[in-house]
Specification:
single chain, 111 residues, alpha+beta, 6 helices, 4 strands, 16% strand
Amino acid sequence: MSALAFFKIISETRKCKKLRKYRENDKLNERMPGYEVKMGNGLHIGWAIEGAIGSFYKIDASYLSPHVKMAENLEGATKIYGVPVLISGEIRRLFSKEADRYVRHIDAIRF
């Protein structure tokens, strides 16, 4: 279901009328031709430890584990491959045969 949520977010971002206004803004395109809102998403499965980091005025949640680092690495690699989502083999093995028809193996990466 998490993979489906990622795909829905990407779809809604591309269809969003407010974001389309930025894509079609002449002044913005003059400064940054072909401007488009893009997000990279890395999806992996595993455990994580959550901890609060911050100060008296502001606290943020942080997640630590090798699995979180793997998801971060996959997200970073989306820029290299020019794709909106990269999933790990561990996630793909959990896909049904029907869902697996919609993904493709693009590379074997060792981080």
